[in-house]
Amino acid sequence: MNFARRNASTSRHPLRWSMTSLVVGLTLAMSTQSVLAMSAKVPTSSSSVVQTLEKVTAVHSQMNDAADERLYPRLMTINEDWNIQRPQQVVTGQVLDKQGQPAANAVVLLGNAAWGFASTTTNADGFYQFSDVPQGTYRVLARYAFNQRSAGTSLDMGESTLTVESGRLNQSNVTLSMVGSSLFGVITNATNRLCMLALVQMMDGSNQVIWEGFSNLNGMFDVELPAGHYKMKVFVGHATRVQSVSLLPSTKTSVCVVVPMTAMMGTVRSSSGTAVLNAWVYAFDKFGNVVARTLTDIHGQYLINGLVPGEYSVKVMKGNEFTSKGNIEVKTHVTTTVNLALP
């Protein structure tokens, strides 16, 4: 407006000049064609000037509204998409056992088909928390960890459904109830000899190992798992036995696993004919590789299971004494007897 005042003394129409400058100033945000058109029709009367100002203001407002419509709907869409995609909610809850006591160190899973699954564990008071959870409906599952069985805890499982919403407390409490099963097994060979320290693996439907352990000195093992269908794999030496097992809820299932015999057994005695205890017996393949070893028992007896059919040699060592024997043929499902005597 300084420009208008500076030229007012030389102009015959100060008001018209000032208002014309105002019109031009208001139309700077418009397109070039609109500015030229409006400048060519600058009125000379005060009433016309007011009407023109109103028109200019209306046009300018329409242009801003059009720009806003082009810009802000997109920004609103971005914000809405961001609010949908950005996890913002917190899910909390408590897991109780079937006696109503807090379940410490229980595994809690939260998820659905769209979001996937996340897991956490409860604290000493049975509480758990998930952060950054999108809105939606979720399954909440809780179970004891498999390794808690060693502490005498039965395998329990609980489930609930939760709808996560914004602006509210998203809480799901889960009570564990007994749905687990127990599997008891005995591992023997074809001659009914118990197989100690045999490796046992339990696999789910996708062939993932979910539990493994060893048979005890009596060839026995037991494990607690959720009800369902499993594949059990037993390793005795180099021999392997695979069979299917179905477990019912809250039921103890017994199995007897017979490992096929392709073995070598015998007795080790001293030069005087007495049984030798804790003598090392090694089995070598035809290339000279050690494929198995074992110790003799109190009767001087040994057993090497799970040998691949073929030609072997045997070496026995006790302190500084040793002896060996070669050209031993081992056949499928046959126990080959090889007795040895230390010098």
Work out the helix count: 4
Name the CATH class of the largest domain. Mainly Beta
Question: Portion of residues in helices?
Answer: 10-25%
* Number of domain modules: 4
Q: Mean pLDDT, as a whole number?
A: 73
Q: Rg, please?
A: 43 Å
CATH topology of the largest domain: Immunoglobulin-like
List keywords for this structure.
five-stranded antiparallel beta sheet, carbohydrate binding, 343 residues, elongated, alpha+beta, Immunoglobulin-like, disordered N terminus, Carboxypeptidase regulatory-like domain-containing protein, single chain, 4 domains, carboxypeptidase
Summarize the structure.
The protein is of the alpha+beta class.
Can you describe what's shown?
By secondary structure, the protein is α+β, with helices and mostly antiparallel strands. It folds into four domains: 2-84, no CATH class; 89-178, Immunoglobulin-like; 180-259, Immunoglobulin-like (Sandwich); 263-341, Immunoglobulin-like, CATH 2.60.40.10. The protein is built from four helices and 24 strands. A five-stranded antiparallel sheet has the order 3-2-5-6-9, with no helix packed on it. A hairpin with a 3-residue loop joins strand 2 (106-112) and strand 3. The model is unreliable at 1-46, 66-87 and 146-155 (pLDDT under 50). GO terms for molecular function: carbohydrate binding; carboxypeptidase activity. Pfam families: CarboxypepD_reg. It comes from Alicyclobacillus mengziensis. InterPro entries: Carb-bd-like_fold, CarboxyPept-like_regulatory, SDr/BOS_complex. Keywords: Carboxypeptidase, Hydrolase, Protease, Signal.
